[in-house]
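User: Here's a structure from my thesis project, written as structure tokens. My advisor, Dr. K., wants to see whether a designed sequence matches the one we expressed. Can you design one independently, without my sequence as a hint?
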């Protein structure tokens, strides 16, 4: 039986997207500036196609300039780099996103490293990683930003909270830990070699699950009243039906936690909304304009 507050990521995302649309309208009216996001898709991965389509639609709906560039699945690293260079040089493009994963023959670190850090709305460039980890203004990866916005809304001041991030990837776990540290949490960054993961989780006021293992984090790993943010997206089959589940056993955890994000409808919608937010931030910084409220 659920007792936790269910954190409605869809509603949060709708609010954030409405705010971004207002900011875009203000930038157009006051500065003649239309933020622009360009997405490069290499190959025909079906999940990537859906993500790119959704990003394009959301960008367009926010009133921004939205472009998608498709390269064939046998594209060379040089071809992708040439497109990145063209977009780096285009002043109407404020954000560049290369949809991952890239085909094997493309040197992904070289491509991500070639994006102008000021236009790196995914926040994967080492310059942005360095800025984030030294507490400076960075472009921060969208998923952790979305998690933090929801957390701050639910918990308020995070100072002194014990937080555990389960998963240490460059795109979710590590930047999430850096953001929580910046909020003065005491942060544990756990991974596949962590000893006694249930015990580590039980000490935490905040649990962020970014593992990619269906329902791995059980209800009895959660401290009563804790806030649980589930980043995981896992496709499983149950009772003959295909289903999306998170990294947290939702029903069990919801009976113990104070608040929890569902999957779907939690972190996922916030990721795209934060991409729009990052694009506005990038456009303002590139034009030395204060970000509208
Ligand atoms: P990665 O596969 O890159 O990283 C997974 C991490 O989980 C690794 O650090 C790994 O540890 C750790 N891990 C794996 N098994 C265990 C275990 N048994 N115990 C503890 N830690 C473990 O995944 P991502 O960070 O890219 O993604 C994580 C999840 O989040 C996925 O389900 C993905 O689909 C989802 N996701 C959702 C997004 C959204 O918008 N909602 C956006 C991005 C991702 P080690 O480093 O030791 O191998």
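Assistant: Designed independently from the structure alone:
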């Amino acid at each position: 039986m659920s007792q936790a507050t269910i954190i409605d990521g869809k509603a949060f995302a709708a609010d954030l997207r409405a705010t971004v649309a207002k900011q875009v309208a203000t930038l157009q009216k006051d500065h003649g500036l239309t933020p622009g996001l360009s997405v490069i898709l290499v190959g025909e991965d079906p999940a990537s196609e859906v993500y790119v389509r959704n990003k394009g639609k959301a960008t367009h709906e926010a009133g921004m300039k939205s472009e998608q560039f498709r390269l064939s699945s046998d594209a060379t690293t040089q071809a992708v780099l040439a497109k990145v260079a063209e977009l780096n040089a285009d002043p109407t493009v404020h954000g560049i996103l290369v949809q991952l994963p890239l085909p094997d023959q493309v040197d992904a670190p070289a491509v991500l490293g070639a994006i102008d850090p000021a236009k790196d709305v995914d926040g994967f460039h080492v310059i942005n990683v360095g800025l984030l980890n030294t507490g400076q203004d960075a472009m921060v990866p969208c998923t952790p930003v979305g998690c933090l916005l929801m957390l701050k809304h639910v918990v308020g001041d995070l100072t002194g909270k014990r937080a555990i991030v389960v998963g240490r990837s460059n795109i979710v776990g590590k930047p999430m830990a850096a953001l929580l540290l910046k909020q003065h949490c005491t942060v544990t960054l756990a991974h596949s070699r962590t000893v006694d993961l249930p015990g580590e989780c039980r000490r935490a006021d905040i649990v962020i699950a970014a593992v990619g293992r269906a329902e791995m984090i059980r209800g009895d790993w959660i401290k009563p009243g804790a806030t649980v943010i589930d980043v995981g997206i896992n496709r499983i089959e149950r009772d003959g039906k295909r289903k999306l589940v998170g990294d947290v056993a939702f029903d069990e955890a919801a009976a113990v936690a104070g608040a929890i994000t569902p999957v779907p409808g939690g972190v996922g919608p916030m990721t795209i909304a934060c991409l729009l937010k990052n694009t506005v931030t990038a456009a303002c910084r590139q034009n030395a304009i204060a970000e509208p409220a």
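When you compare it with your expressed construct, this may help: The pocket of NDP is lined by residues 143, 166-169, 171-173, 190-194, 197, 210-213, 231-234, 267-268, 271 (CB under 6 Å).
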